[in-house]
């Protein structure tokens, strides 16, 4: 399990998009279990990644 925490605008969403191969990193490689994500099947990669977004609840 990996958790991305940080203030607004620090790059959490961009990082997740790069891990999911929605955008390409400008340099370097992204490895999951020592395997480059560029060598993985995109559909399989995305099906094995889950995320939870923060939203305002019904009660403040």
Automatic annotation (TrEMBL):
Statement: the UniProt record of this protein carries the keyword Transmembrane: no
UniProt cross-references to Pfam families, sorted A to Z: ABC_tran
UniProt GO molecular function: ATP binding; ATP hydrolysis activity
InterPro entries recorded: ABC_transporter-like_ATP-bd, P-loop_NTPase
UniProt domain ABC transporter: residue ranges: 2-60
Keywords: Transport
Domain of life the protein comes from: Bacteria
Keyword Ubl conjugation tagged: no
The family this protein is said to belong to: Belongs to the ABC transporter superfamily.
Matches recorded under PANTHER family: OSMOPROTECTANT IMPORT ATP-BINDING PROTEIN OSMV
Name of the protein in question: ABC transporter ATP/GTP-binding protein
